[in-house]
From TrEMBL:
<dbReference type="InterPro" id="IPR020449">
    <property type="entry name" value="Tscrpt_reg_AraC-type_HTH"/>
</dbReference>
<keyword id="KW-0238">DNA-binding</keyword>
<feature type="domain" description="HTH araC/xylS-type">
    <location>
        <begin position="236"/>
        <end position="334"/>
    </location>
</feature>
<dbReference type="InterPro" id="IPR009057">
    <property type="entry name" value="Homeodomain-like_sf"/>
</dbReference>
<dbReference type="Pfam" id="PF12833">
    <property type="entry name" value="HTH_18"/>
</dbReference>
<keyword id="KW-0804">Transcription</keyword>
<protein>
    <submittedName>
        <fullName>AraC family transcriptional regulator</fullName>
    </submittedName>
</protein>
<keyword id="KW-0805">Transcription regulation</keyword>
<dbReference type="InterPro" id="IPR018060">
    <property type="entry name" value="HTH_AraC"/>
</dbReference>
């Protein structure tokens, strides 16, 4: 069961990696941009974490939007959708009786990629729509995220209908359609602004159109493994959201709050409700990762220390013994 009201919305590591790959379009060092967007430096590597907080994508959208002119941004969105995201998502669909059935399946698949996603097929005003529900925000990220969503939903409809669908009416939450009209392939659409949702019209003759899904190997949906249920605690979700950043060591609470797009007092208050203190929790999480690294790899202890932000191996050894009662070498030998 997917969480319908997550305390910390999560997105699959695979999805964040897809977005982070857009930084390659920029004539700047990816490392600096990843750091500015609060994305882990190892996002393009094989890792042991499955997801990141949705807020990391909001940070990403702000950095990308600030780094590209809107016309070039639209081209990056279009190419990324066509080359990567659309083939991946279509590749997991199985429903081919109609466009409506395929879209409904897609909406369920998307929930497994992002616990905060809410896209659905709706009939409103006698018309069919592909609708994205997202609370409106005046923050910078929202506009760029909506531009990507419009581009993505349009390309999805084109692919599923073998180009029978063409943009007609598009509702957006933004107060201006100027930049949306500049998006590639959408120049002839009629945009309706300040709508409560983002929505693309689907003509009635297409909604029941049978779909010809190509035989594509199904990709693994990483968040399908995150069956936390409705009762998952804030601490449970905090652990999942912060795990990708633990290689940086004991994160300052200011940085954790920045990653989650909240403030320090709010973070402290939410943890306190579950009888946890930030510094104790983050140290516990870091040492859980360290213990796993010691038992699952043969990395030298000095390398493990450096990997988790300890420049002084002696300090690392003392800290590890304080937490576990053993030195790193003793701990590894005991579990060999």
């Amino acid at each position: 069961m997917t969480m319908t009201n997550p305390k910390i919305p999560l997105v699959s590591k695979e999805s964040v990696e897809f977005f982070a790959s857009m930084f390659k379009e920029l004539d700047q060092r990816s490392y600096d941009l990843l750091r500015k967007a609060t994305l882990p430096n190892d996002i393009h590597k094989e890792t042991n974490y499955l997801c990141l907080p949705e807020s990391s994508l909001k940070n990403f959208m702000e950095v990308l939007g600030e780094s590209l002119e809107n016309d070039r941004l639209g081209i990056v969105f279009l190419r990324s959708c066509r080359e990567t995201f659309i083939p991946k998502m279509v590749g997991v669909l199985t429903q081919n009786q109609s466009l409506k059935a395929a879209l409904e399946e897609f909406c369920e698949v998307l929930k497994q990629e992002s616990t905060g996603a809410h896209v659905c097929v709706e009939n409103s005003g006698g018309k069919w729509w592909l609708v994205r529900h997202k609370s409106k925000s005046d923050e910078v990220w929202f506009k760029y995220a909506e531009m990507f969503s419009v581009m993505f939903m349009a390309e999805l409809l084109r692919v599923l209908t073998s180009n029978r669908w063409t943009p007609t009416i598009i509702g957006i939450q933004d107060s201006s359609a100027e930049d949306f009209k500049k998006l590639p392939t959408l120049g002839k659409a009629t945009f309706s602004v300040e709508r409560p949702v983002t929505a693309l019209e689907i003509p009635q003759p297409l909604i029941d159109l049978p779909i010809n899904l190509q035989s594509v190997e199904q990709s693994k949906l990483l968040l399908g493994q995150l069956d936390l249920g409705e009762e998952a605690s804030y601490v449970d979700q905090f652990r999942l959201a912060m795990r990708p950043y633990l290689s940086m060591g004991k994160l300052p609470i200011t940085l954790a709050a920045q990653i989650l797009r909240t403030n320090v007092r709010t973070l402290q208050r939410k943890l306190k409700k579950e009888d946890r203190i930030y510094q104790e929790l983050i140290e516990e999480m870091v040492f859980d990762e360290i213990k796993e690294c010691l038992t699952s790899t043969d990395f030298p202890v000095t390398q493990v220390a450096s990997q988790f932000g300890y420049s002084d191996s002696a300090h690392f050894g003392r800290s590890f013994k304080r937490v576990t009662g053993l030195t790193p070498t003793q701990y590894r030998a005991q579990r060999a």
